[in-house]
Amino acid sequence: MVIRLFARRSNITMHPHSTEKYIELFKKALSLNNSTMYQANHYALIGSFHPVVEEEKGEGFHGGIYRFLNFESGEPWINLSENKEASEEDLEEVNIPDNLRPGYHSNNYIFFPKEHLLFFERSSSGQKALGPKHAKKIFENLLNQKELTEKYGRVDVTIEPSYEALDKILKMPTLSKLKLTVTKPNPDFFGSGTDQEVEARFKALNAKNFETELTAEKNESLTPDEGIRSLANVAASNGKVIGSGYDENGIRKQESTENHPYIETVKYDPDTQGIMGMLITKAKQMKTTLMDRRNQ
């Protein structure tokens, strides 16, 4: 049997940051054992967090996000056999232990604290898919609990777009409007040249984030220069880029890097391969690809 998995990547930032603080953050989030609602009646929690190699804890960690259904006790129930709202007498027969919840699904993740990169499994056999926007909400909520922000500050999560996503926006036949939303990256994100100019801009403004919006002259198309392209690269991995305009047929369109996540499809045979080992190997390959892309 071949199972198809989807690995997606998120960028996690906090200020100030260090490898040790990222590890502490995840361990503390795990120990709190709190869940968060990411969709109506759908909840999730960080269920585990283990080093990939016990002797090299700074090199990477793997764990699971556990998802389940939770219903408010005060909400009305329906009696399907009578097609009407359940009575108090009906509900007396309902007895769900406090420690049990239905709809359990789990998704593996791999986290590299040094590079602050997280890769998560979207779906595998028998598991409902976890979309990127829901994954982003889960991690942002769980890593920004009051007990954590008081010690570590605000944590931002960005879903890494595909390599083609930004290109598709900047090469739009007629680019009428370009909006860049940039959340302050970790200092080690910046390379040289224009990247350093972006870093200097954050420092000069004492800003946590900023937005830049460009609008073309009527019946004209924007022509992003090297500076705007570099800023867009930063925004794609630390925020978002939205472009609107027209395609080659004159049809109006809008593209966002948020709608095109970086995704890899992995096939494996569970009779001959372990799922976690395969995911770790794939995550390391994706990490190398992203770091190479960042350094170009």
Structural class: alpha+beta
Number of strands: 14
In whole angstroms, the N-to-C terminal distance is 39 Å
What portion of residues is helical?
A: 25-40%
Explain what the structure shows:
The chain is α+β, with helices and mostly antiparallel strands and 296 residues long. The chain contains eight helices and 14 strands. It starts with a strand and ends with a helix. A hairpin with a 4-residue loop joins strand 5 and strand 6. Helix content is 30%, strand content 31%. The longest helix has 20 residues. The protein folds into two domains: 186 residues, no CATH class; 97 residues, no CATH class.
Write the layout of secondary structure elements.
Layout (H helix, E strand, L loop, with lengths): L2 E12 L4 H14 L3 E4 L2 E10 L9 E9 L8 E2 L4 E2 L2 H4 L13 E8 L4 E5 L10 H12 L2 H7 L2 E5 L3 H8 L3 E10 L10 H12 L3 E7 L10 H12 L1 E8 L5 E5 L6 E6 L6 H20 L2
Antiparallel strand pairs: 1-8, 1-9, 1-14, 2-3, 3-4, 4-7, 5-6, 7-8, 10-11, 10-12, 12-13
Short description:
Helix content is 30%, strand content 31%.
Primary descriptors:
296 residues, alpha+beta, 2 domains, 8-stranded antiparallel β-sheet, 8 helices, 14 strands, globular
